[in-house]
Design a protein that fits this description.
heterodimer, A: mainly beta, six-stranded mixed sheet, five-stranded antiparallel sheet, globular, B: mainly beta, four-stranded antiparallel sheet
C-alpha cells in the first residue's frame, strides 16, 4: 500500500525557478527519504531526514519534515533542465534492526524543467 | 565501485512462460530488495533478503512469484506462468546492514504478450 502521497502529481517550471514538492505519510517514522527517477528506470537516493530533524540541505536541495503534520517537502532551487525527473518520498515499512526494511513510496511528482 | 546491476534490461515473453530476473547487488551489501513498478500500482515492495534468508515475503503478489539469494550476493526473481498483469519494471536494490538508504539497479522491463 502507498504510504506517502506527493503533490503536485506533475509540475512544469522554467529553468532557474524553484520547484517545491510535498509528501504526506500515514504512520510514525524514524526517517524519510527522497529519491529521484529518470525515465522510469532506477531510482537514485537524494537525501534522508531523520525524525528528530526539521530541515536538511544538500547542494540545491532543501528538505523539511513536520512530524506533527506527517508531511515533508523537497525544494530544488535554481532548477536546471537536467532536474527533469520523477521525485518520490519513501518511508520504511516493516522495520528490521531499527533502521532497515522495505521502502514504501508515494506516487511521485513528475517534474519538467523547460530550458 | 560498481553499482547494482540487473539483467536482462528488457524481457519480452509470452503469456504462460516462466522468466528469471537477476540482480547483482553492491559488494558487501547484506540487504537486498525487490520492487516492481507498473503504471497502475506505482512502486510496490515484493521481497526483502537479509543475507540468504528472506524475513519478509509479504509483497509477493501470488505463489507464481519466488525469489532466492545465494552466497549472500546474487538474487534471482522467478515468475512462473507469466500473465499480462505481470508486465512492469522490476527493480532491485541493496543496502548496507542497518542502513536505511537503498541503492537501486536500472531495472528489468518485463513485457508479457
Amino acid at each position: 500500500s502507498q504510504q506517502g502521497e506527493e503533490d503536485p502529481q506533475a509540475l512544469s517550471i522554467q529553468e532557474g525557478e524553484n520547484a517545491t514538492m510535498n509528501c504526506s505519510y500515514k504512520t510514525s517514522i524514524n526517517n524519510l527519504q527522497w529519491y529521484r527517477q529518470n525515465s522510469g528506470r532506477g531510482l537514485v537516493h537524494l537525501i534522508l531526514i531523520r525524525s528528530n530533524e526539521r530541515e536538511k540541505h544538500s547542494g540545491r536541495l532543501r528538505v523539511t519534515l513536520d512530524t506533527s503534520k506527517k508531511s515533508s517537502s523537497l525544494l530544488i532551487t535554481a532548477s536546471r533542465a537536467a532536474d527533469t525527473a520523477s521525485y518520490f518520498c519513501a518511508t520504511l515499512g516493516m522495520n528490521y534492526g531499527g533502521s532497515q526494511g522495505n521502502l514504501i513510496f508515494g506516487k511521485g511528482t513528475k517534474l519538467s524543467v523547460k530550458p | 565501485g560498481a553499482g547494482v546491476s540487473q539483467s536482462p534490461s528488457n524481457k519480452v515473453t509470452e503469456k504462460g512462460k516462466d522468466v528469471e530476473l537477476r540482480c547483482d547487488p553492491i559488494s558487501g551489501h547484506t540487504a537486498l530488495y525487490w520492487y516492481r513498478q507498473s503504471l497502475g500500482q506505482g512502486l510496490e515492495f515484493l521481497i526483502y533478503f537479509q543475507g540468504n534468508s528472506a524475513p519478509d515475503k509479504s509483497g509477493l503478489p501470488s505463489d507464481r512469484f519466488s525469489a532466492e539469494r545465494t552466497g549472500g550476493s546474487v538474487s534471482t526473481l522467478t515468475i512462473q506462468r507469466t500473465q499480462q498483469e505481470d508486465s512492469a519494471v522490476y527493480l532491485c536494490a541493496s543496502s548496507k546492514i542497518l542502513e536505511p538508504t537503498q541503492y537501486f539497479g536500472p531495472g528489468t522491463r518485463l513485457t508479457v504478450l
